[in-house]
Every structure is written in C-alpha cells, then in structure tokens.
Specification:
By secondary structure, the protein is of the alpha/beta class. Helices cover 15% and strands 23% of the residues. The longest helix is centred in the N-terminal third of the chain and has 22 residues.
Length: 151
C-alpha cells in the first residue's frame, strides 16, 4: 500500500469517527457549532477540530463550553492521532467511552463540568502519554483506577 493511500484511509477513518461523534451530540448552541461539520468543508476545517500538518489527521478536539448535549460516541477511539480532547463544560451524559483507552497519543483529556456517569474506564491506563485528566463535576462513581497514580 502506498503512503498516499494510507493517508487517505486514515483521513476517512477520522472523518467517519467525527461524524459518528456528531450523530450522538446535541447542539444546543445559538451559533450551531456543529453546523460546520458537513461535506462542504474538509473535516480539518470543522469548528473545534485541529489536524496535524503532515498527515491531515485529527490531533485536537476542542469543544469546551459549546452547550453540547448527548453522549460521547465510542468512535472517538478511532481518532488514533488525537493528543487533546476537551469536551468540558457541556451537558454530556452517559459513560466515558472505554475506547479513549485506544488513543496511545492522547496527552490531555478534559471532561469536567458535564453529567457523565459510571466509572472511570480502566482502559485509560493504556494511554501511556496521558499527562493530565480532569473529570471534576460529573456524576462518576467507583474508585480511581490504581494505575493512574503517575498522571
């Protein structure tokens, strides 16, 4: 497989993951933050999405304080180049997807000030580059996984 084909397939994976995320989110903002998430723009130009220059893969998802409701799609685990995920200060509910644990490059995960429930997924310990997490002001239960001590 050529390098160009591999990049194109990766780009399509990121696009599909973002569209699946959009499908589970409810845009309550007056500006329609997710309205830019459509076929008229390349997904790297969608509001809140940042891509790396070389491979055009999603490296940052910054959707904090956007009045988003709904839940976080497990498809977020397919954003394999993601380094920063900031979905704090919204109205998100449901569980933290364990698929975040597939994101080996993830460094920062901010999910504070939502209505998330359940426990912190043990799979997050697979994120060996994780430097900072913030899950404050949610309705999480259970214990913090013991292998989070180094974060």
């Amino acid at each position: 497989m050529s390098f160009e084909i591999a990049i194109a397939l990766g780009n399509e994976t990121d696009k599909l993951a973002l569209l699946a995320l959009k499908d589970q989110l409810v845009d309550n903002s007056s500006s329609g933050i997710l309205s830019s998430w459509n076929a008229s723009l390349h997904f790297c130009e969608w509001q809140g999405v940042r891509c790396g220059r070389q491979h055009q893969r999603v490296i940052s998802l910054k959707l904090s304080s956007m009045k988003l409701g709904g839940s976080i799609s497990p498809s977020v685990g397919n954003l394999s180049f993601l380094r920063v995920a900031n979905l704090s200060d919204n109205r998100l509910h449901g569980n933290i997807p364990r698929e975040f644990g597939q994101l080996r490059r993830l460094r920062f995960l901010y999910l504070s000030h939502n209505k998330l429930q359940g426990s912190i997924p043990m799979e997050l310990s697979n994120c060996s580059n994780l430097q900072e997490i913030n899950f404050n002001h949610n309705s999480l239960s259970g214990k913090i996984p013991f292998n989070f001590g180094d974060i």
